[in-house]
Amino acid sequence: MLANLKQFLIGKPLKSEEIHHEKYSVFRGLPILSSDAISSVAYAGEEILWVLIPVIGILSYKYLFYVALAIVMLLCILVFSYRQTIDSYPNGGGSYKVSKENLGTTWALIAGSSLTIDYILTVAVSASAGTAAITSAFPKALTHKVIITMLIIIIMGIGNLRGISESSKLFSLPTYLFIAVSVIMIVYGIIKFYILGYTPTQVQAIPEATGNITILLILRAFAGGCTALTGVEAISDGVPNFKEPAQKNAKVVLFFLTLIIMIIFGGISYLATLYKAVPTLDKTVVSQITEQVFGKGIMFYIMQIATTFILIMAANTAFSDLPLLLSFIAKDGYAPRQFLTRGDRLSYSNGIIVLSFAAIFLTVLFKGETHFLLPLYAVGVFISFTLSQTGMVGKWIKSRKAGWRHKAFINGVGALVTLITAIIIGYTKFLHGAWVVFFLIPLIVHLMKNVRKHYDEIAEQLSMENQDLPKFNERKLKHFIVPVGGLNKSVLKTLNYAKCLSDDIVAFHVSVDDEESEKLKRKWEKYNIAVPLVIKKSPYREIKKPLMKYIFSEEYPSSPGDVVTIVMPQFVVSAWWGNILHNQTALILKNTLLREQNIAVITVPYIIKSQKKS
Amino acid sequence: MLANLKQFLIGKPLKSEEIHHEKYSVFRGLPILSSDAISSVAYAGEEILWVLIPVIGILSYKYLFYVALAIVMLLCILVFSYRQTIDSYPNGGGSYKVSKENLGTTWALIAGSSLTIDYILTVAVSASAGTAAITSAFPKALTHKVIITMLIIIIMGIGNLRGISESSKLFSLPTYLFIAVSVIMIVYGIIKFYILGYTPTQVQAIPEATGNITILLILRAFAGGCTALTGVEAISDGVPNFKEPAQKNAKVVLFFLTLIIMIIFGGISYLATLYKAVPTLDKTVVSQITEQVFGKGIMFYIMQIATTFILIMAANTAFSDLPLLLSFIAKDGYAPRQFLTRGDRLSYSNGIIVLSFAAIFLTVLFKGETHFLLPLYAVGVFISFTLSQTGMVGKWIKSRKAGWRHKAFINGVGALVTLITAIIIGYTKFLHGAWVVFFLIPLIVHLMKNVRKHYDEIAEQLSMENQDLPKFNERKLKHFIVPVGGLNKSVLKTLNYAKCLSDDIVAFHVSVDDEESEKLKRKWEKYNIAVPLVIKKSPYREIKKPLMKYIFSEEYPSSPGDVVTIVMPQFVVSAWWGNILHNQTALILKNTLLREQNIAVITVPYIIKSQKKS
């Protein structure tokens, strides 16, 4: 029943060889690898205004422009840095990989855990922002915000378990649509204001200024806007997915990505200045601008829908990247091995499931409010930027190939700038939630190291190198004990089975009721069972303790270190509800016995055929 | 860890022989066996007013008296009937038992399921009413009504798992306190009104009459008040718990119980008439009267606390009776066997746990509102009254002992009157919720019969009578297969173990990665493992299917019907979180293999020692 539901939701299993990596052209690669970065403009400008407006009121729009400019400059520095990463890592250079190779394990784990946190936040933030785009168009849906966001995450989770990335052709459309509509809006918005002489109607009153412009305020605004740069690293991770010449194509995409972000982020920020949008929890800044520029007509709805879809695509990036990252970490032994298993549809299902639950948890915790989630966001990204660039610097210094100084300088500038940005973000957002990230990163790194330690310990204990290999002599293995509750065909089958394997068999009965035990004794004699029956009282109605006591007693003919085999009858009812109706004594006993070193457990099933319904 | 928590909550395990049944004197038995019945006066009068007041306004107080009188008469009839049950069943005559002996299984199951539903309702109703007594005194607690009720249920559940009934000495106090305070209140209330000439202040306005008095209205009021009679049967169930002469003592308690209900129920109904209490959801009728009679002083709070405690005791009755009833039904095979198991503290823990959850579910569903729960209540009780009395009539007719006509007549009247009452309650409350009960009873009876059928089927298939007993010849049992994922000490231990038991061993490896399989082959040769290694590809990354396919293939030397033994290496990590870090492949494989008739499974554990923390 459950298996059917699973198949209905995620589709038929695929063969291992059916895995195939599609190669992207520039045209196809751009929307897939840049949706995360491009989509962040849907909330980045708004974040800057959230910081400025309550303090300096109408003056904000002037500073919005400067802050946006600073962020675009930061983007350019990043692009130069990442071009070098693309050149050096034709097989993909994610932060984890670059840090591991050049900085060592601990830094790699810091990068890995920063990214893990950020990918989870990407899903929560993008799904919430996608919902915000919907509710800005349809305010009636506002009360169901959290549910809508959760549904988006669940659908994406299921889609990715099915292996949605295969069908990503569909996904190009909304990105190009979003780019096109945004550019039209920017151009038309400027024309409408300057040439048609439209005077914006003030939807939301701009609050009075309550303070002065300070460095800290500008830094906070800058930190808020930096969310626009999340996702830029995706292209350098995805180099091997490009058609040949892969590195060149990747760099072309990186160039276009930069251009698009500059135009849209700059343009929308500029429109916000012209049309005086004021951030509120209920209506996004972008939707306020769109409504003013296009009126509440067809274009408004197209823009909102395109925004929703590009945000969903951005979340989808995390769904394909985080499980891959976790599988890398798991391969190195720092994460549970389950992250390496491919599911029925060849996706890393466990990573997808963990990501879905974590993102849903965050959504519920933060009530589906993008603005509350964002303080946690971006710190992780910039930490991983810094580590990746620093790793590149280390790489150049070590290599000392031609032009290494020049290249190290470029990555060094990248590392320094992203480090400063990380510090700014961390400092200004610390009390608003970034402290959680600074608390979680060392915790996760610590856990990851312990996981590795655990695997190492086990590998060492199981290893066959340089150790005495275990040997058993035959005699020691032939102690068989069959625990019996009563005497029936299942027990008989088990006794017969045991007799074929050993001559040293004892049937062991734990008595909780003298009368029952007496009955069993008589039945044992009646059927002339050729196995001795040992009966022990159990005042606490337990089975394992009396059994263990018996095994270690004088009475039982085993020497210390002997292996004792417990042969358990177990009848299996085919109906799924069958097990509810039976005491799970056998099952529980089996599981606790397996914790003993010198006990092997045999289960002899007896299948109960389900009969026709009356 | 979990085991420690369990022991902290419910105490150390007790030995089976530590079970002991305390025998009650009349003085001790009265509070324990009658708290359910006596406590219902806390809400029965209120229920009558809920029906009358909205329709006939101030006239209600006149009819309240008549309805209460009818209920007291019904009580007297019941008492005569139950005296005869006490005489006939010195070992306790619950409805289930009496119906089973005299009417047959189906009727017994109807009685059993009615009682089950009603016991669950008793807990939910009494806990809610107990909370209502608290919130009437401390209105600030009103917002936490549901939580308080749930806490009461959880504490009672845990208390009963500990075996609280032993300490029931404590419980006598609140019942006697409640009786004493109630009687004082009634006497003083009458004096205050008639002799001191107190004019009641109208706290709540009495609504205007909106209709006329009709038969249906009276019947509905009667049905509401009948909740006062729930719990009367407890004494006849509990006869064996009395000191000798048990039957006589039981009858004395029954007499006192009747007297107390007559006085308190009649008295409080009369006070309600004098002081014109109006039922509301926020303040109980009893608390309104208490406040008028005593003022909001110490006596008021004592009365509220006594009410809360007697209601908790009433709920506790269900906690001792329902698990016992379920154990009877389970003994007859109509309920899951787990209800027969005594827990660490010798209580029927599973019944207690099921009861707690069901009552909490009802509390949440009905928002902890006694008034909403009551329509479901009482129907079940009167159905079981009817069946029990009808059973007694059957018993007399069959016995034809001296005076059987007279005795059959008394029980016949009892049966008829309770039947009519059940019909009245069912009819008048049908749409208000009683339909649920009429829907549930046949459903539960059906389920119970299916449970029995299931047990019968299994017993038949396992029975050793009149059937060919299974025999195995040695050859058939010696097919051993060891599934291996790799080669390590755990696998080696397993292979050595298997070699001691059989010569026909194959190691079976499922290949999902050619390279890994090649490595395994080389390692196999390097260590010179004397067991042949079979490698099969699994395109869908499964293990069971290729294994089963191999067993049934030409390649494998077994004949149909042969038993094949799968020997599984399993390493066991002692830390509780250890298993999270390992693919549970072995465990899952084991569980699915056990569904095959001719496969036995041996698990050979390899214990990983947990090393010191670094």
TrEMBL record, chains A, B:
Subcellular localization: Membrane
Coiled coil regions, renumbered to chain: none
Transmembrane domains' residue ranges: 63-82, 103-126, 146-164, 176-197, 252-278, 298-326, 347-366, 372-396, 408-427, 433-451
Keyword 4Fe-4S carried by entry: no
Keyword set includes Transmembrane: yes
Keywords in alphabetical order: Membrane, Transmembrane, Transmembrane helix
One example GO MF annotation: transmembrane transporter activity
Gene Ontology cellular component terms for the protein in this record: membrane
Bilayer topology annotation: Multi-pass membrane protein
UniProt-listed PANTHER family: POTASSIUM TRANSPORTER KIMA
This protein's name: APC family permease
Organism: Clostridium muellerianum
